[in-house]
Amino acid sequence: MLTVVYGGTFDPVHRGHVAVAHAALAQSGAERMLLLPCGDPPHRDAPRAPGALRAELLRLAFADDPRFRIDERELRRAGPSYMVDTLASLRAELGPAAPLALLLGQDAAQGLAGWHRWRDLPALAHLLLAPRPGGDPGLPEAVLNGWQSAAAAAALHQHPAGLYWILPQAVSDASATRSREAMARGEWRQADLPDAVRARLRRGSPYDAALPSSGDSPILPPPTASTASAPVPQPGQPRLKSDPRVDPALSADAAEALLNTVRDALDSIKAKDVREIDVRGKTGITDWMFIASGTSSRHVKSIADELVRRAKAIGNAPLGVEGEREGEWVLVDLGDAIVHVMLPRVREFYQLERLWSVGDEAADEAASDQGGAPAA
């Protein structure tokens, strides 16, 4: 059975990765793919997201297909993540006769001669090349001198290593860089991400310009409800951070009306331990973050339902509601305000207050050191 290895930083995994992976299996006839998030890439900057989060996002992106498996050996291995070491370990596990292919973008193959011990790669695996629309159609000397051309995909199944084959159909030109830039601007709909990945990152993301780029960001539970599409805002509605169609000069009074609606809804349904955090200047996603607890899953859902009902009543339909099915953590995205309603144990575990208040705490400590009091 031919096993395809697809490595990369996946920072984050986007629709282009998913399209390439599915095309590689479909066009090569392979039945299994190992997706390997890189731990310490030797030829590029360190990933923005921690390895555990990137692996988790990969699981979300490929959750519905058992042919794909996430392999974390490069995250566990100390030192630079050299592909030759990864393929050598896989070859030792699979045996000398098992067909093994490394999936690589055809444009990325141009730099293959700079890889660590690249001349050892042909003895370990085939090379499966994925062309990018508009990419460089040529093959570098490293490929031509290291691997033999396969007449058809079937040859990859008949030999353990040493052949190269180009996928006959080019696939998506989505870019992780463009997705990160869109998320940093708060333009989540412009990020070319699988739905489950986008929903997960909306709950806490190292790709937002204001959030930490290391392991400080929490790894968050996956939402289950699909994000609703936003209606076209009307004059007088609050500014919706996630929607590029909105005029930023819309009424501040409307935004204040939304905040009061959220406060009233939380109070009326007896939400516990409500925390209201001003995140203006910290993120482009929203202006205000509310965190509240419910005493049970039913209570959490009831709070979220009341928030949605009251927001619609003032003409501010939510941009999305996530996590309703389980009722352990429900997120209601109202544009200028995002509300997290959580069970106490979930809230204690993820400590969103700490994530969003880290700058405020430092300012408070500084004021205290100078004998002053923090601003209200």
Give a brief description.
The protein has helices at about 15-30, 50-60, 75, 85-95, 140-145, 155-160, 175-185, 195-200, 250-270, 295-315, 345-350, 350-370, and strands at about 5-10, 30-35, 70, 100-105, 125-130, 150, 165, 270-280, 290-295, 320, 330-335, 335-340. It has about 375 residues and is α/β, with parallel strands linked by helices. It has two domains: about 5-165, Rossmann fold (3-Layer(aba) Sandwich); about 230-370, 2-Layer Sandwich (Beta Polymerase, domain 2), CATH 3.30.460.
How does this structure look, described?
- It is a single chain.
- The protein is α/β, with parallel strands linked by helices and 376 residues long.
- The chain has 2 domains: 3-166, Rossmann fold (3-Layer(aba) Sandwich), CATH 3.40.50; 231-368, Beta Polymerase, domain 2.
- Helix content is 34%, strand content 16%.
- The chain has 12 helices and 12 strands.
- It has a 7-stranded parallel sheet with strand order 3-2-1-4-5-7-6, with helices on both faces. The protein has a 5-stranded mixed sheet with strand order 8-9-12-11-10, sandwiched between helices.
- The longest helix has 18 residues, at 352-369.
- The model is unreliable at 209-250 and 358-376 (pLDDT under 50).
